[in-house]
Amino acid sequence: MFIWLAIVIYHQIQSQNNLNEVFHLWVNSINGTNNWNLPVIILLTFFNWAIEAKKWQILLQTIEKTNFWHAYKAILTGQALAIASPNNIGEFAGRMMYAQEGNRGRSLILNIIASLSQLCITFFAGVIAVAYLWKQLPHAFHIITVILPISLTYFNIIIFASTLILLLIYYRLSHLTQYFVQLPYFKKYRYYFENITHLHWYKLTTVLTYSGFRFVIFLVQYVLMLQLCGVHAQIFQLVAITALFFLVLAIIPTIAIAEVGIRGVISLQLFGMVSNNMIGILLATTAIWLMNRVIPAIVGALFVLNIRLFKKQPNEKIRQ
After folding, report:
1. Packing angle between helix 173-180 and helix 152-171, nearest 10 degrees?
2. Where are the alpha helices (DSSP H) in the chain?
3. Does the N-terminal or the C-terminal CB of the chain have fewer CB atoms within 10 Å?
4. Which residues fall within 8 angstroms of residue 5, CB to CB, at 6 or more apart?
5. Which of the given ranges, 94-108, 146-160, 243-257, has the highest pLDDT on average?
6. How far apart are CA 306 and CA 144, in angstroms?
7. Which pLDDT value is given to residue 167?
8. Are 91 and 296 in contact (CB under 8 A)?
9. pLDDT one-digit tens code per residue, 20-64
């Protein structure tokens, strides 16, 4: 598996045409006026995945005992498999590999909850970004109709309604689960959903808060990298466009091998509303992709070497 992951990651890196410019930019940034940006962005990358690891630890502790380092390795391994799969579905498998054998199916459900919490934050922030940009950049904002084949009015209504629905589903998971496990078809899978029925609202709120922290880190990273690449605009505009950027990425399905290309196209269209520095926009997008996706994937691929998928472990008491 490690060899396969290494080949996939290598081909994804080799397929990028502007990597030399990115590395040249990083070298020049050491002596530039914004020489503090790059170390901060790198530090935030590790902090970002540490927050995700803590979020995963909180969820996984509903079915088995685990520690922060174990959760961190699971997160990075998930990134290694995510980068080699459509729409990051391999991330689920990577995390499951670190769960105890009897709990891997149950951990899949927890993975869905973790992803749903991040999606809720992405849509919520997207709604705020849309409202801000529609007021600040009413003419340029029509670029969204180029990216997504839908009118702005319908786009706003759908995004707002989707945000409310996602939050409602997220906080009513225990009630929805209790209903579904009573149905004849789902009764035989009751074991996999039992832990969800005990997820209290405060634990869901804690997970949602960690997802919010991660999103803020994403925003800060992008703004700092854009500034480092010479893309200058009002801070609030850059923040709002970045939030909209993540919303569009969440809506559009992608495969890993084409992800950075899609990111590049969308970033040019969105950040092009406030800047003509197309090279800087592309460099910033590629640089963030390398830091947040490729580097964690490489580390996670190394962890795969030490995983034993089928090993006997003592039964752990379930902690609610």
Report:
1. 70
2. 2-14, 19-29, 37-60, 68-82, 90-96, 104-136, 144-147, 152-171, 173-180, 184-187, 190-193, 201-228, 235-251, 256-271, 278-289, 295-304
3. C
4. 80, 81, 84, 297, 301, 304
5. 94-108
6. 45
7. 93
8. no
9. 666 666 666 556 666 778 889 989 998 999 999 999 999 998 888
- Closest listed residue to residue 219, CA positions, set 202, 238, 200: 238
In the chain, % of residues over pLDDT 70: 76
**Residues 313, 320: Cα–Cα separation, whole Å:** 20
Contact status, residue 257 vs residue 15, Cβ threshold 8 Å: yes
Is the confidence at residue 18, as pLDDT, over 80? no
Which of 5, 3, 66 has the alpha carbon at shortest distance from 300? 5
Contact by Cβ (8 Å): 263, 285: yes
Buried b (16+ CB within 10 A) or exposed e, 53-76: bbbbbbbbbbbbebeeebbbbbbb
Distances (CA, A) of 171 to 151, 180, 200, 211, 289: 30, 16, 9, 15, 31
Q: Are 201 and 117 in contact (CB under 8 A)?
A: no
Per-residue buried b or exposed e for 249-268, using 16+ beta carbons within 10 Å of the residue's own CB: bebeeeebeebbeebbebbe
Cα–Cα distance measured from residue 249 to residue 4, given in angstroms and rounded to the nearest whole number = 26
Distance CA 212, CA 207 (A): 9
In this structure, what DSSP letter does residue 252 have?
A: S
Residues 95, 316: contact at Cβ < 8 Å? no
Q: Which of 20-24, 105-109, 128-132, 205-209 has the highest mean pLDDT?
A: 205-209
